[in-house]
Amino acid sequence: MKKTSVLLTSNKLNIQDCYDFVQDASCGGIAVFIGAVRNSTENKTVTLLDFSSYEPMALKEIQKIADTALEKFSITKIAIHHAVGELKIGDIPVIIAVSSAHRKAAFEACEYAIDTLKKTVPIWKKEHFENGEVWVNSHP
């Protein structure tokens, strides 16, 4: 049984795909984190975000996060999907779904995965504003 689903794509992310992957009859808890593109940051109006990555290393690091989460927490499956390219307000740049027998492990693994992804995965975000753009530090 495959326990991890890792994806880096320029296609629209699908919440149902992540849920379907982690769903398991032995699991009573599924935690999902969905990142959404918001319309403002630091008192500036955001028009879109542009995500880029060094794909081979990004996929390797995302897989490492998934594997570590499986070892560190009592979880059954984990999906970590991230989008690249231009995303508009309301679009989804990241989905993390985790299943476990009990909710606490799923919540903890989900939080670990997003926090670690933001710190270690070579995915960069450029925020576009009405009057300019800026590369954002990759750390939370």
Set out the fold topology:
Layout: E1 4-9, H1 15-22, E2 29-35, E3 40-41, E4 44-53, H2 55-72, E5 77-83, E6 85-88, E7 94-100, H3 103-120, E8 123-129, E9 132-136
Parallel strand pairs: 1-5
Antiparallel strand pairs: 2-7, 3-4, 4-6, 4-8, 5-7, 8-9
Helix pairs in contact: 2-3
Q: How would you explain this protein's 3D organization?
A:
Strands 3, 4, 6, 8 and 9 form a 5-stranded antiparallel β-sheet that branches. A 4-stranded mixed β-sheet has the order 1-5-7-2, with helices on both faces. The protein is elongated. The protein contains 3 helices and 9 strands, in the order E-H-E-E-E-H-E-E-E-H-E-E. The protein is an alpha+beta fold. The protein has helices spanning 15-22, 55-72, 103-120, and strands spanning 4-9, 29-35, 40-41, 44-53, 77-83, 85-88, 94-100, 123-129, 132-136. It has a single domain, classed as Aldehyde Oxidoreductase, domain 3 (Alpha-Beta Complex). Helix content is 31%, strand content 39%.
Helical fraction equals 25-40%
Largest sheet: 5 strands, antiparallel
Total E-strand runs: 9
Identify the CATH architecture. Alpha-Beta Complex
Relative strand content: 35-45%
SSE order: EHEEEHEEEHEE
Q: What's the overall average pLDDT, rounded? A: 94
- Domains counted in the coordinates: how many? 1
Q: CATH class, anyone?
A: Alpha Beta
Q: What do we call the CATH topology?
A: Aldehyde Oxidoreductase, domain 3
Low-confidence stretches: none
Distance between the termini: 33 Å
What is the 3D shape? elongated
